Amino acid sequence: MSSIDCGEVFIRTNTSEGNIGILFELDLVYKRTSADKISEFSCGWTHLPIFNEDGTPIANKNYDLAVSGGTPYEKGVEVDPSISRRASSNPLRSLMSKNKQPRLVFKLAVPTKEQKDQLDTLPDILVGSLCYLPSMSYYRQLTADAMLRDRLNMQSTELIHSPFLVTFPAITEQPDLMDVLRSAWAERLKVSKRADKRDAEHMKEIFRQVFLESVYSLHHLAGLPPYKFGDSEVEQTRLTEISQVTKLNKSSKTVLASLLSTDVTHKPFDVSELSFDVLGPFCISK
């Protein structure tokens, strides 16, 4: 399943405030052909508090919530008021109309032991796609190793040589490249020995290698347009470019096939590709 089609998300929070909840907004992306512009609009929203009135977490079960219109700051706005207007004169029709208003059905579940271990490596407050969880966990562990274990001075803000740490955050913003990474990682896990899988340090290094071999060079392709959600033309162009290079690397069984090929053009090299800044654009500034 592609990242875009994955409907499972994880929610991690360390707060116990009673007014915290999950806000769902249903959006529709469209393209105005006259102006050649991609836009989106809200089709409705709903909200689920994650704590009961007594302060205990809500139950893990299926939820069926009514979708409201307007904005979260407006109360009692229906998505389609015409349904209520047509049904107001007939009591039976009014009863039936309640089932015609849109509703959102989803399931709240407890993470598995493996997922919980991975979630424990992430920041205290984070929402993300569940299919990204293993990759994000490895990134956090490797970042911690580079900043805390492998440095003589943990207070230093000097640049760290690591193309992996520099590039990974940018890859997470491109679902098609994340699909390539997830596929390559799944293939590597299939051929890994059980003893290797139990070695956490070994698996972290293998993940770093898979990342560099699968998506690092793709990210720097000259012909790869910036990812734009909802733009089918851009997505198709990127798919064609990524497929050609990926196929070339697989047939030659090495990423050097595309790096050394005269048919593949990459962006000019910049030293910032290798220099991880602990105060970079993806850090949390206070």
Q: How do you describe this structure in short?
A:
The protein has helices at residues 81-87, 91-97, 113-119, 133-149, 163-171, 175-191, 194-197, 200-219, 232-252, 256-259; strands at 9-12, 21-32, 37-49, 62-66, 103-107, 126-129, 160-161, 275-276. It is α+β, with helices and mostly antiparallel strands and 286 residues long.
Would you kindly provide a written description of the structure presented here, covering whatever features stand out?
This protein is an alpha+beta fold and 286 residues long. The protein contains ten helices and eight strands. The protein has helices spanning 81-87, 91-97, 113-119, 133-149, 163-171, 175-191, 194-197, 200-219, 232-252, 256-259; strands at 9-12, 21-32, 37-49, 62-66, 103-107, 126-129, 160-161, 275-276. The strands form four sheets. A two-stranded antiparallel ribbon has the order 1-6. Helix 4 crosses helix 8 and helix 5 packs across helix 8. The chain starts with 8 loop residues before the first strand and ends in a 10-residue tail after the last strand. The model has no long low-confidence stretch (mean pLDDT 87).
List keywords for this structure.
286 residues, alpha+beta, two-stranded antiparallel ribbon, 16% strand
Which sheet architecture does the biggest sheet show?
A: 2 strands, antiparallel
Describe the global form. Answer: globular
Distance between the termini: 37 Å
Secondary structure: number of strands: 8
Contiguous helical run count: 10
Helix content: 25-40%
